Amino acid sequence: MAAQPRFRNDAVAGPDQEPIRDDPQVADGKHPVDETLPPLKMVTSGLQHVAAMYAGVVAPPMIVGPAVGLTAKETAFLMGASLFTAGIATLLQTLGFWRIGARLPFVNGVSFAGVTPMIAIGKDRGHDGIAVIFGAIIVAGLLGFVLAPYFCKLVRFFPPVVTGTVITLIGVSLLPVAFNWSQGGNATADGYGSTTNISMAAVTLVIVLALRKLLRGFLQQIAILLGLVAGTLIAIPVGITDFGAIKDAPLIGFPTPFHFGAPQFEIAAIVSMCIVMLVCMTESTADMLALGKIVGRPADERTIEGGLRADTLGSALSPLFNGFMCSAFAQNIGLVAMTKVRSRFVVAAGGGILVVLGLVPVAASVIALVPLPVLGGAGIVLFGSVAASGIQTLAGAALEKGENALIVAAAVGIGLIPIAAPEFYHAFPKDLLVVLDSGISTGCVVAIVLNLAFNHLGRKPEPVAQEPAATAAAPVGAH
Q: What is the pTM of this model?
């Protein structure tokens, strides 16, 4: 009788752990996702994740705060609260408890999808506007938590032709963010798009690429962090590093619960944020599928259910500490793909760092020293890595079969509309723009619908070839 394989898809390491998947790099029953690294490697790799996503976390409150009429000090408070709640949500994802958390190296932070509707809800209403936004987010988060067990079943509609398309769109959709950072980040500021800013982005890009080429081992894995440090040091004599944030930042600052007053509940605001939540759940599902493929632990229904529960629970809890809706950060998926560091505990360390940054504003201001052009140069590599992962997935999606190439063409084309022509949907109702302005969401929906139309509806199931009796009776693992 042939020996049974040591690792099987249904083997379970413990009551609170995910099943051990087939993976050539699994050793002693522990998948690389579940590995714990030495403390120094854990902290530095976690810090690299924080550096990659810091600007994305503080940007939404930086935009929403002034729009609703908050002072600069109150907006800074919102930014600290967003770092704190992003850390909590990331810990929920990576460590998890019960059936909450994907238990993948999955970073959560403030979703950009909610910025436009939040501004529409709270514009010029001050504290009342923030209270209404928070009330709507709480309801949307609780609704998403209830829907998670049903929403995760959509995974069957994400074959490689869909996931490859969506992963590619995630990377391509993020590249304009890196280009904007490379120019300076603020189109109304002096020097935006200057040769100085773009040159700093180019220098950082070259440094990161050179470090990846020349270094080995752990130093190669933290090439992004080393590149950001080097770029920031070079930017000091160039004059684009702002030390003002450190001077004005307090040493300690806890995000007082309901700092802006008790949450208020308005129907229109709740409906708007519930739509945003569905968009975020769609994007998170695609991100989990992408990350699962990259780390060698494919995301099944249970993984996606846990991930969506962490997303939605994190979103429902965020307003308690004055934070906004949380969702997946795709730029960190690119970092995992590039560094090959797959441990979820590394990202959990990053979540812990985010919590500390939210409690110690002066520490957060040190991270903020990294000029946006420097971050933009590194971002080109990070976001490009996501797109490259999508292309790699599409390479195995049988594009020569049926209408798969047409599915990719239509989904990518429609998904690129918000990037190539940002005003394309300007005449549409504002509520629809929540979905239409996200190329990831529209491309995902188009890919799913076309895959159903071409590959499922009206198709007769192909006959299953009967195996010889001897082969059919062979035990698992026999050849």
A: 0.66
